Every structure is written in structure tokens, then in C-alpha cells.
Amino acid sequence: MSGLLALLDDVAGIAKVAAASVDDIGAAAAKAGSKTAGVLIDDAAVTPKYLHGFEPARELPIIWRIARGSLINKLVFLLPAALLLSTFAPWMIPPLLILGGSYLCFEGAEKIVHVLMPHDDHSGGPDGSHDIEDPLHLEEEKVKGAIKTDFILSAEIMTIALSVIEEGNIWMQGATLALVGIMVTLGVYGAVAVIVKMDDVGLWLSQVGRLGMTRALGRGIVKFMPWLLKTLTVVGTAAMLWVGGSIIVHSVAQMGWHMPEETIHHIAVAYGAGQPFLEWAITAGIDFVLGFIWGLILIPIGVKIVGPIWTAVMPKGA
User: For this UniProt entry, which segments traverse the membrane (predicted)?
Assistant: First the structure.
């Protein structure tokens, strides 16, 4: 009997440790996920464009295909790479974060420049549309393009997540990164699914609603969704520049250059009047400005050098 009680006590102890580990993984995943907000908002704002021109019946299957590709990107390719990086070359994490932050700044600045100085979009017809003679081929192209874009964003997400996970047990790191990857993918593409189908829901309510209030709600949803997408785009762009600038400032501090981070901190404290939110807002605003300036510097490099090289290396339609 005493042996059985001892065994049960050991099992209870193991269960407590396991529960604590699960809590630690969940807390770490939540912390890591919160650091990727800018990338997530932009991802949710960008993805619906890949559904333009398709029948409503194909929207959810396409979203599922992109989400599945995103999970493969994160769990099959990026997760092992992140763990290897953390184990054998942790010194590479800050430079990779700077690279990822620079990409965010470039994308955000380019979007603002495109709004201020619009130019023709040569990716489709005169209005940016595509000739859908072969819907299946177009769907394949769109899905491949979305998954390639997702790979870049997912790499940034996983690198950011890795940078805020405390060093320790590799299994703990792996489980946390896996949880972050799954949570992020479900959150982003679940939100995208809701966004792209809300038009259909609104249209359905406006047509079959029994009450005038219901039909009015449906019409309101239809009118509201374009504004929501525009708002997401604006917020996503601002978040990209803010997060990108913040990542670069913090990463260069990790590499030994503390002056930018310390200067921003002193300015925030001096003008924040002891208000935590105001200090955060000042810091975020400075990070945004720095991110935008750095993005403007990178635009000619990306357009004139990186873009042509990428086009030459990557086969068309790959």
C-alpha cells in the first residue's frame, strides 16, 4: 500500500510540474505573440487581396489552403531553423531581427509613398484586375504568392517570438514557438475568413431579414466592410513602421550600440510627465518616425537592387 501511495504521490508531482510547464508555455507564447502585433495586423490586412476576383464559394477553401501553407512554413521549416539558431548561433538573432525590422520599415514606407505618389499597378489590367480565363491556374498562382509572402512574415514572427522567449530547455522553446505559430495562424486566418465573408453575411441579412432593423444591419455591414479593410491597412502600416523601428532600435542595443534606445527612453521620460501610457506613446511615435525614415532609405535599395535580384533568382510563377 505504501508503495502505491508513493507512486500516486510521484504521479501527482509529475502532473504539477507538467501543469506548471503548460502554464509557462502559455504565458511565454502570449508574451511572444503580443510582440508580433504589427506583423499580424498587416498580415490580416494584406491577405484578403489574394481573394479578389474569385467566386464567394472559393474564398474559404483558398483561405484554408493559405493557412495550411502558413502552418507548414512555421512548424516544418521555420521552427526547426529557429531552434537550431537558438542553440548553435544565438548571436545571429539580433542581426536577423534587424533584417526583419528593415523589411517591415521598407514595406510600411513603400505603402505610404505609394499613397502619396501613386503609380500604375502593372500586376494586372488597367484597374489592377486580372484576366480570369483559367480560374484554377489563377487560384494556384494566388495561393503560391500568398504562401511566399506568408513565409517572410512568418519568419519575422518566429524570430521575434524566439527573441523574447527565455533561454532554457529546448523543448520548452520548441513548444512555445509551436504554440505561437498555431495561435498566430488561427488568429490571422480566422480573422481573414470572418472579414471576407462579412460582406456575404451583410448581403444575406439585407435580402432575407424579416425585420427592417435586420435588413438595415445587413446594409450597414456591406457599407462598413470597405472602411474596415482601409482602417486595417492604415493601422497595419503604422504598426509595421512602429514595430520595425522598435525592433531595430532594441536589436542594435543588444549588439552594443545603446545610444538610440537610451536617447528615446530619456525623451519619453522627460516628456511623459510620469504617465506610463504617454511614455509608451512617445516611444512608439519616435520608433515610427525612425522606422519611416529608415524605410525611405531602403526603398531605392529594394527597388533598384534587391527587387531585380529576387526576380532573377526566383522563377516566374514559383
Answer: 75-93, 170-196, 227-249, 288-313
